[in-house]
TrEMBL record:
Signal peptide: none
InterPro entries: ADF-H, ADF-H/Gelsolin-like_dom_sf
Name of protein: ADF-H domain-containing protein
Ranges for domain ADF-H: 5-138
GO terms of biological process kind: regulation of actin filament polymerization
Amino acid sequence: MPSPTDLLSDPEIATAYDDVRSDKSPTTWMVLKYESASKDNITLHSTGTGDLVEMCEALGEDEAAYGYVRMKVGNDEYSERVKFVFVVWAGPNTKVMRKAKMSFQSGQVKQLIRTYAVEIQTGDKRELAEDIVTMKLRKAMGANYDRQSSAY
């Protein structure tokens, strides 16, 4: 059984993770993918300075990937907070064996990507729509003073 350091041996992963976490870096997201359909090594596929929609463009319908994105959440400029989202992506056409291995390997990825407010496991990009993810982050933050989403 490979260790997390074997699976995630690409040194660029740690650098990209630190960049996404840093307020001083323009990098707001990264996507990790498997080296190939037959190998379990995970490599840094891409990074970007845009939003969640931009990150989703890097997620293929027939592949497994892990995304990490920095988002700002708040009702106004004074309550705005930076939060992180970890995405475990298995596109609708991902092979069954890859999906099965991901349940174990995602735990290994989390040993490197440790800090996030919300984890989303999905194969449907609609679940990664900015408004849906923002609502999940708000719920994770606790108090929500946004009357539009109030249950009252």
